[in-house]
Amino acid sequence: MDLIRLKNVTKQYKNGVTAIYDLNLSIKKGSFVFIIGGSGSGKSTLIKMLYREEKPTKGQIAVGGLNVAKLRNSKVYKLRRKLGIVFQDYRLLPKLTIYENVAFAMDVIGAKKSERRIKVLKALEVVGLKDKVHNYPDQLSGGEQQRVAIARAIVNDPKLLLCDEPTGNLDPEKSMEIMKVLDNINKTRGTTILMVTHDKDIVNKMKKQVIVLKEGRIVKNKEKGIYYDEAI
Amino acid sequence: MKLFRVLIRSIQDAFKSVFRNFSLSLASISCITITLIIVAIAIVASFNVENFTKLIEKDMTIVAFVSKDATTEEVEKLKKDIDSNKNVASYVFKDKAVIKEDMQKESETFKTILSQWKDEESPLKSAFQVKVKDVKKIGKTAETIENMDKIDLVRYGEGMVEKMVKTFESVEKVAYGAVIALVLVTIFLIVNTIKLTIFSRKREISIMRLVGASNFTIKTPFIIEGMVLGLLGSIIPILFTTFGYISFYDHFDGHLYSELIRLIKPEPFIYTFSLIVLVIGIIVGMIGSARAVRKYLKV
After folding, report:
1. How far away is chain A from the Cα of B290, in angstroms, using its nearest Cα?
2. A153 CB contacts (<8 Å, ≥6 apart)?
3. A21 and chain B: CB distance < 8 Å anywhere?
4. Is the CB of A47 inside 8 Å of chain B's CB atoms?
5. What ipTM describes this predicted complex?
6. What is the pTM of this model?
């Protein structure tokens, strides 16, 4: 079954730049997909359209049965509750502790308090930060902060995890730790993971499905792909 | 249940945030306070003007004197004619004997002088006292009555009273206009002060949206916060105008310049306008913050 389906999607920005040309793509439930490509290839635009930060100019986008292209501003939260998002800059709230940051994602959807504690601790256990629940984000390293962000993204058990260059600010060693966490989530929870990156080592080591974008078009879509320089 | 939990959280957040961002909250509160004081004064003024305009209008009477030689039948005909006039609300016919008694009651001097006159030589005339429905048409009605048979003289305080009513009417209009303009200005100021508060929480709002908070969930604490600010901002204006009005009323003994301009009694008037000021404060705070937060919910 396809979790994500894009049909003839075109995105043109108001300044006239066309980021995505007539793109067709479907991603199966439970898969782990890398989206790679050079600067301006449209990979960020693609992922932004999936969580409805951007609207496509033309075409249809379906995520988990929701028609994302036609989703109204006031209904965006329905989509966001189905997915978790991880960014390069973590986006944690500095005044809240690690526990509160993760619990925040449950609070805003009105989860029960009893259920909240169990789920937050479980999510922090998955990312290996159970002993740092009372610390604040600035007391943690970059890799740890990113793991908190991952815990926050998975705490509501989303079907899909979107990662926009999650290892962009981290050194290779810490990056691999993050990748292990993500791989573990994909395998044990069956969460579909879509990750935008331009880290060659990671793509080559993980041996997952790779989609290569160039100038807004898919030039390669391979199972167990590797990062070819000439593809970019 | 879920809605209830979200609402409780919103109210808690609103109070927390008012005290957490205390300097900005204080700015919003003082801005509401200052404008609400002026709004409250304008409300008190316009209510009073409306009140005594109505009282004066109610008091306005046409007095029509009947000729001495009018027979009983002619007086009866006059009664019918006056009663059938469309603008006449009510009328009282006072026979000269009754008028004599009334005057005698007024002072000792009148009593002795009047008692010397016999009915035939008395200079007093029987009169109709007519109240009208529409004060603006009083001149025309007076004219109609004057043209009736056996009516000698008609008086209704022409000129002066009409001018007074007109002046009060425009004063009232200006006061209402001032209230509306001030409320709009307050909303504008509140929007901008609350925008500052919200700007510092822009990141929080964007993260809330990313993790799936509905617009309702995000907006509610800000709107409640605005209502709390409005509530806190209306305390001083309410106290100021309540005590101010009571001492004003006492100082002038309930009327300005003449008995004609009567002030509204402080009770229950102070409760009415306090409630109005409070409601205006809360609504203004609510609209202000709802407008301020809207901008951040478009992403």
Report:
1. 15
2. A84, A85, A86, A105, A161
3. no
4. no
5. 0.84
6. 0.69
Q: How far apart are CA B273 and CA B268, in angstroms?
A: 9
Looking from the CA of B167 toward its CB, the CA atoms found within 13 Å total 9
State the span(s) of chain B assigned CATH 3.30.70.3040: 61-155
The Cα B171–Cα B261 span in angstroms is 14
Output the six-digit token pair for B218: 């995000």
Contact between B215 and A109 using a beta-carbon 8 Å cutoff: no
The pLDDT value recorded for residue B10 is 72
Please write the tens of the pLDDT for every residue from A115-161: 899 999 999 999 999 999 999 999 999 999 999 999 999 999 999 99
Q: Identify the CA nearest to B210 among candidates A53, A61, A22.
A: A53
Closest CA to A155 of A224, A86, A97, A78: A86
CATH C-level class of B61-155: alpha beta
| Alpha-carbon gap, residue B80 to A156, rounded angstroms | 86
CA distance B150 to A65: 93
Q: Contact A33/A60 with Cβ under 8 angstroms?
A: no
Q: Which residue of B has its CA nearest to A79?
A: B212
CB-based contact A49:A211 (threshold 8 Å): no
* Residue B175, C-beta contacts closer than 8 angstroms, at least 6 positions apart: B42, B43, B45, B46, B49
Count of H helices and E strands in chain B? 11, 6
Q: Is B222 helix (H, G, I), strand (E, B) or coil?
A: helix
Interface of B with A in 137-166 (CB under 8 A): none
- No. of helices (H) and no. of strands (E), chain A: 7, 10
Three-class DSSP category at B123: coil
